[in-house]
Automatic annotation (TrEMBL):
Keyword Nucleotide-binding: yes
Protein name: ABC transporter ATP-binding protein
Keyword line: ATP-binding, Nucleotide-binding, Transport
Annotated source species: Streptomyces aquilus
One term of GO molecular function: ATP binding
Amino acid sequence: MATAVAKAEQAESVEYAARIEHVSKSFGGPAGQQLVLDDITLDVAPGEFVTLLGASGCGKSTLLNLVAGLDDPSAGSIKTDGRPALMFQEHALFPWLTAGKNIELALKLGGVAKNDRRERAEELLELVRLKGSYGKRVHELSGGMRQRVALARALAQESRLLLMDEPFAALDAITRDVLHDELTRIWEETGLSVLFVTHNVREAVRLAQRVVLLSSRPGRIAREWTVAIPQPRRIEDAPVAELSLEITDQLRGEIRRHGQQ
């Protein structure tokens, strides 16, 4: 993992981690082409943590997939500083491999020499607070531990941009809160840029430097908020709750407008 100084120098050398310019996306269906995303323009700065928020079906995950390169936009362009790493809602670990071997597979695909993989996997497990779990099978891990391994596997790709698609949605509230703390710590230690999709308003405010709200389908950028609340933050903190209420009111307005269309 690059040092903080190296990350700072890297941040100064590039203009953006992701640049999304006038992106639209349509999918074909029985009723013809359906517009899912409409004219999205958004930059993620080096080292910035941005959350994408919106009602179900607004195109958040579609946009993340486009940034990841899993699909192509119907219009517009997307540029990233290197190839992004993607972390899904489901951990997607291979159950026949140990925690360490799941990470080593990503290292292998990244070109890391065989003799170096075990040590690097151990380092990444320690980074996500799973020291000593290299040999554990997936079924021996709790839901939160599995997501930590999935995060370590994403970090193994040495990407400068981490894309996260509701990675904590299936976890209980306490485990999710712990992983919020861990993700914030890792983001601060590594200097990664993060684009994080969620439908949970408080989670968005708890984590991000900037919250971007998408309107209901077709998804457009309805509004953005800079989150000036110092870290560490808690879900129950008064400033987090206050900003969450403001964003929730805006989100409800977007949902009402969609229902009237």
